[in-house]
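In response to reviewer comment 3 from the previous cycle, which asked for concrete evidence that the modeling workflow produces usable outputs, we include below a single protein chain processed end to end. The sequence was submitted unchanged, and the resulting structure tokens are shown without manual editing.
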Amino acid sequence: MGVTEWQAMGNKKPSQNWDDLRYFLAVARTGTLSGAAKQLGTEHTTVARHIQALEDELNNRLFHKSNSGYGLTDAGERLLAGAEAIESAYVSSKAAASSEGQPIVGTVRIGAPDGFGSVFLAPRVRALIDRHPKLEIEILTTTRPFSLLKREVDIAIAHSSPEQMRVVSRRLTDHRMYVYASRAYLNEAAPIAAREDLKEHPFIGFVEELLFPPDIGFADAIGVEPRIRSTNVLAQLQATLSGSGLCVLPAFVASSYPTLVPVLPEQVSFMRSYHLHIHEDHRKAAHVREVAAFIAAEVERNHSLFHAPTAISAAAPHLVDAEEIRPRGNSNRRALLE
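The workflow returned the following structure tokens.
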């Protein structure tokens, strides 16, 4: 934070300073008053009043408004770094002040791919909240990445190692994906005896241009063009269950549906990885650590679920590993979640 900004805020109580900065950070991160209001659980008019009060206090405009939302001015950019430093210090201090042995209290927001969040995690969190009655869980499921820096989530489950600074991470598990079809579809469709036969059948897949990361779609690797496309794994699952065609699905998703049959599992499969990320500031937060440990333990306890069917030969001539087609990311990140 620049000297001018500090001097202007010096007459306020620390609690007032932090309260003003909370609203500032929310608008800077969401880009809109309504988005900030939703994040803070208040009204957009309240957000506007706080921003106006802060600008009056600093005698500087912090945002410029456009059709796309609120963007930071030069003064806003200068304030942002200092405000985030204060936020980090506040979060870390609050976490450090939590005593060992105290009840786990608070809300933990988890961002995860829809398959993992909806099919694997959601049915299991009851055990966690039963264990900690004052703990609340929010699960956000989407294919887009979540920003820990912008505090969109407390824990992010992702297919890759972290792309952001000040993130601690651990690899949860590898998981296999296979081509699946419903028994009803296979009973009526032409036989599938070899990889080339797949091209004669309709496929269900992703809307490629909306994919993130772009390598979670496997149509090109198989050599097919999906006729039914969705950005959501659960939508693809339902289309497959209805007998609409073939689809690449995670084994842990398909295993819950006995009417789904893996097609050429020893010839065609893909492997991906799940990673768990938290912001460095939350390493000592008891409620976040407890939820992160629970997720890791559940994944470990259900390890085989992520790899079924089990009859996979490393020498299978047509086995495709997603690691071979995935762009390599930046590996110079902190990779240990203690």
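Residues 162 and 278 are 9 Å apart (CA to CA). We consider this sufficient to address the reviewer's concern, and the full set will be provided in the supplementary archive.
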